[in-house]
Design brief:
5-stranded mixed sheet; elongated; Arc Repressor Mutant, subunit A; Beta Polymerase, domain 2; about 20% strand; alpha+beta
């Protein structure tokens, strides 16, 4: 079936057939019917499904059929339930039907109490207290459009770091203002593509006074986390006899040099930001050109095993964006910002995901809640 060539009527019939197939798979469900809205006066939807339920109850699914819809457009649709009848005596459930429902679209449906299904055989139909049908994982039945921006690139990651800083949660952005905050700088064209994708995915929204602002920081963090390329940072193991205060003193001295870039990273950054998982290694970001100075001052030797220092050679200087004060006693050395720490922890192995979750609960969520965006 060539989904992209189906007319509006053909697509509705295909979606109606898929819904009939789904309802027909429920053995105890009897007497249901699916009918097109053309048979229903003043309908503001495309299909209606009536479901007789135990106890002489009935639920009605009101289905919006779309050939294509991005999450941003779906969010706007879901905010307006004007197409639903106003009969309070009946259980009325809005449903979105598409050729394919993306994971992000499915998230938005659940958040807004909409059910959904697609032609690939994925669905989430929930009639409170009576019926719950759920299945995901089937591949799209048609060729999906390529996203306008790849969020895993170095340049897109610089934009993500800006958006996700809690202190910017309520900021009214323009593309040029956003560009000014990105470090290192990125092109306005890249900003435009990233902003368009984030708007289409409903991670950002229009601001009442113009421009745009963050709408869903948690889901945007997860989306970036899942495509973040931690493997682009070269990872090296070192051993040093310097321990405890001696090591911190040496690192602080190294950090005071203006020609050297060293930051606490991953677990070591998390120990300063939201202590939870203790582990014996010190984690650092060190630029490749600064490795000789680092090895000399820290008295560190590269090793293949048994390291007590883990050094990450950053693939992009963006990891230094808005680095935080990593003061320990009288020792001063910066650490990565909490957003960078979170995504690094998630991918660095060991108990990294556990530490990342602690950082999320202790620092990021409270900060976003304080800003009123969570």
């Amino acid at each position: 079936m060539n989904i992209q060539r189906l007319s509006g009527g053909e697509l509705e019939r295909a979606l109606a057939a898929k819904l009939e197939e789904l309802l027909g798979s429920v053995d105890w469900l009897r007497g249901w019917r699916v009918e097109p809205a053309i048979n229903i006066p003043d309908a503001g939807f495309d299909l209606r499904a009536s479901l007789p339920l135990p106890g002489r109850r009935e639920a009605t699914l009101y289905i919006e059929c779309k050939s294509e819809l991005r999450p941003g457009g779906a969010f706007a649709l879901m905010q307006n339930r004007g197409f639903l009848p106003s009969d309070r005596r009946k259980l009325m459930i809005p449903v979105l039907a598409l050729p394919w429902v993306s994971p992000r679209m499915a998230e938005l449906c659940k958040e807004n109490s909409w059910c959904w299904f697609d032609l690939a055989g994925n669905y989430w139909i929930d009639v409170p207290g009576s019926l719950h049908l759920e299945h995901t994982g089937n591949a799209p039945v048609y060729k999906r459009q390529t996203p306008m921006a790849n969020l895993s690139t170095r340049e897109a990651s610089r934009v993500m770091r800006v958006f996700l800083q809690p202190q910017y949660a309520q900021t009214r952005w323009t593309q040029r203002e956003l560009q000014k905050h990105c470090r290192p700088e990125v092109s306005l064209g890249l900003i435009n593509r990233v902003v368009r994708r984030l708007r289409d995915e409903a991670y950002i929204e229009a601001h009442s006074r113009g421009g745009f602002r963050l709408r869903d920081p948690l889901k945007l963090l997860f989306a970036w986390r899942d495509v973040y390329r931690f493997d682009r940072h070269e990872r090296r193991g070192y051993f040093t006899l310097l321990q405890g205060k001696r090591q911190r003193d040496a690192l602080a001295e190294l950090g005071l040099r203006t020609d050297v870039s060293v930051l606490y990273a991953a677990f070591s950054a998390a120990e300063l930001q939201a202590p939870h998982v203790r582990q014996p290694k010190t984690w650092l970001y060190v630029r490749d050109r600064d490795i000789p100075a680092f090895e000399k001052l820290i008295e560190a030797k590269p090793v293949d095993s048994g390291e007590n220092l883990t050094v990450l050679i950053p693939d992009d200087e963006g990891v230094r964006y808005m680095c935080e004060d990593g003061t320990v006693g009288d020792n001063h050395l910066g650490c990565t910002n909490i957003v960078q720490t979170y995504v690094d922890l998630w991918h660095c192995g060991g108990r990294g995901k556990e530490a990342a979750d602690a950082l999320l609960e202790q620092r990021l969520k409270p900060a976003w809640k304080a800003q009123g965006v969570l």
